[in-house]
Write a structure and sequence with these properties.
single chain, alpha+beta, six-stranded mixed sheet
């Protein structure tokens, strides 16, 4: 499936069950049932400090991204955010869906009220994906096998 056949949009309340299934694929052994997942999902949908976007192929969800804006620090004129999840179903990988989802998170970060530093960690299997987007992994930290990546939008705001 090519990205031209995929729609990237903001998640909706009606996506809860499919979103939950994707989260279970992303985290095998996820103990949360739909009944436990849905209230938090619905709360995050209403929170302007969260970005939940989905990829839709042939009327089914094929991926999602979840990002959070933690806000400004005490002394900072910038905000700190995190991409918590980026997941594309195995049958939809290498189609441009992951790139489109992560770009939706980047666009969201660019539109935040304060310039943002957006961070995330990657699985060893996804490092090459982020490198293909022009990012350099940072292997220093508590979990060097899951390197960090950063989109620093402070420089964009200074121009």
């Amino acid at each position: 499936m090519a990205i031209s056949d995929t729609i990237i949009r903001t998640a909706e309340a009606s996506d809860a069950a499919e979103f939950h299934e994707l989260a279970r694929l992303f985290t095998p052994g996820l103990a949360t049932t739909l009944r436990g997942f849905e209230p938090n999902f619905l709360t995050l949908l209403q929170n302007p400090n969260w970005h939940l976007a989905v990829a839709v192929e042939q009327d089914s969800l094929s991926g999602y991204v979840a990002a959070q804006d933690y806000g400004r620090g005490l002394r900072g004129a910038f905000s700190v955010g995190r991409i918590h999840d980026l997941f594309v179903a195995p049958g939809s990988r290498r189609s441009g869906t992951g790139r489109a989802l992560v770009e939706s998170a980047f666009a969201w970060a660019r539109q935040r009220p304060a310039p943002m530093i957006l961070d995330w960690q990657a699985t060893p299997e996804s490092v090459a994906f982020y490198e293909s987007l022009g990012f350099k992994p940072d292997f220093v930290g508590d979990f060097p096998e899951y390197p960090g990546f950063t989109l620093d939008l402070r420089r964009v705001a200074e121009r």
